[in-house]
Amino acid sequence: MKKIALVTGGSRGLGKDMAQAIAAKGLDVVVTWQSGEQAAGEVVSKLEQAGTVAAAIQLDLLKFDSLDDFAPRLQRLLDDKFGGRKLDFLVNNAGMGATIPMAQATAAQFDDFMNVHFKGVYFLTQKLLPLMNDGGGIVNISTGTTRFCLPGYSIYASMKGAIEVLTRYIAKEFGRRGIRANVVAPGPIETDFNGAAIRSNPQLKERLSGMTSLGRVGQADDIGSVVAFLCSDESKWVNGQRIEVSGGINI
Fold first, then answer.
1. pLDDT at 213 (0 to 100)
2. pTM value?
3. CATH code of the domain in which 145 resides
4. Is 156 a catalytic residue?
């Protein structure tokens, strides 16, 4: 029986490529979207054309209380579209970005980043673990800026640092179920994330390219293939690890 992966934030950017790469491994896929319902539908259509059973469901981690009904809605979707099968993999990718110097940060901004990048991930994972088969896995998306520092990323990187610790605890507490948990930490990627900061700023792109050993910034498919690997039996002995996918930046 085919396995199922849920990719949060799978309607665009890195999440879209993750969904496509996972489907190419032979898995069925559910993607979540916050506001891009049409884009999510286009992702689903493309996956279905390739023979994947796929579906999209709305999830807004900025609204923490909305998590209460997400698991029941997902269960209904799994019953209706996937024959009642459980999830095998959860990819916590949904995110938000902003460059906020610490001196200018507000409590409201801090709370938004916490809900999306840590608190929401923590409790979404908690609520979905009962909907997951044993022997699957969780992939949490972090950032290279937990290892090296970029001014303006103190809130974002701090939340991702918490995710990296949480991942090890998930690996430890749910290992008896055969559920693995790992982190993928991208470096600079040219997507629409954080207002397409890299794509829309040639000077920034050039500077970041010069910081990587491979002399370029990353593309979405540089990340999706690694996430797909972690959603396969090829990585069955990889657990509790942080895999930085950054082209060798700041080494």
1. 79
2. 0.93
3. 3.40.50.720
4. yes
